[in-house]
Design goal:
Elements: E1 3-7, E2 10-13, E3 18-25, E4 32-39, E5 46-51, E6 58-60, E7 68-73, E8 78-83, E9 92-100, E10 116-117, E11 121-126
Parallel strand pairs: 2-11
Antiparallel strand pairs: 1-3, 3-8, 4-5, 4-9, 5-6, 7-8, 9-10, 9-11
């Protein structure tokens, strides 16, 4: 079992920044590829960003590319999402997820690949 707890969400004006954190516990964090997803009521879960086990490779949804940065600190068992130039359409509940991976250089954009999820943190961007 891996427990994931997100923090850092809140209300911010358009153009502002936030940094989300995802604290992991329970298993060896460095054995898991990680991802961020977001969801709003009535809409499907949307992929945001993913990172491989080492943090050396990352992948972003086109909607956030150039504005968001995913990173991880394996020594601190923590995943991050730095969000800059926020837009009202970024408003959503953001969740982190973990996928066990034998391959250290793989990451996933498909939510079905992820085994463990956090409870989410709300990000609201006002215009």
């Amino acid at each position: 079992q891996v427990q994931l707890v997100e923090s850092g969400g809140g209300l911010v004006q358009a153009g502002g920044s936030l940094r989300l954190s995802c604290a992991a516990s329970g298993r060896t964090f460095s054995r898991y590829a990680m991802g961020w997803f977001r969801q709003t009521p009535g809409r499907e879960r949307e992929f945001v960003a993913a990172i491989d086990r080492s943090g050396g490779s990352t992948y972003y949804a086109d909607s956030v590319k150039g504005r968001f940065t995913i990173s991880r600190d394996n020594a601190e068992n923590t995943l991050y999402l730095r969000m800059n130039s926020l837009k009202p359409e970024d408003t959503a509940g953001y969740s982190c997820a973990a996928a066990y991976s034998v391959n250290p250089r793989i990451f996933f954009s498909d939510y079905k690949k992820y085994e463990y999820w956090g409870q989410g943190t709300q990000v609201t961007v006002s215009s």
